Structure to design on (108 residues):
């Protein structure tokens, strides 16, 4: 399996939607733009938001297995994906990239 790098690319916030529809929460997303994580063996990296992981885990696992080319050429780099977490009030966009080095199991 390949390692997969996960980078926080952008955070957005929609205070008008939050004010109208959301109950106050104590701890919004704490990830920072530029923050990186590495998934090994297709597993959630420590410290990565569990809700964000649920949005991206199928893509991470496919990249870890050497796959890609999602939706027939959606990304310029076929071994990557841009995935957002499922928080409609404060979405965070993550870039997923398969490591271009040797596979973790030692095979090429």
């Amino acid at each position: 399996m390949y390692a997969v790098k996960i980078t926080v690319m952008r955070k957005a916030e929609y205070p008008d939607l939050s004010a109208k529809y959301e109950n106050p929460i104590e701890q919004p997303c704490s990830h920072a733009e530029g923050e990186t994580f590495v998934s090994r063996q297709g597993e959630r990296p420590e410290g990565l938001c569990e809700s964000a992981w649920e949005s991206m885990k199928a893509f991470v696992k496919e990249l870890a297995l050497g796959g890609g080319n999602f939706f027939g050429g959606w990304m310029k780099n076929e071994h990557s994906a841009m995935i957002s977490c499922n928080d409609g009030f404060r979405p965070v966009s993550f870039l997923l990239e398969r490591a271009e080095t040797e596979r973790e199991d030692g095979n090429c």
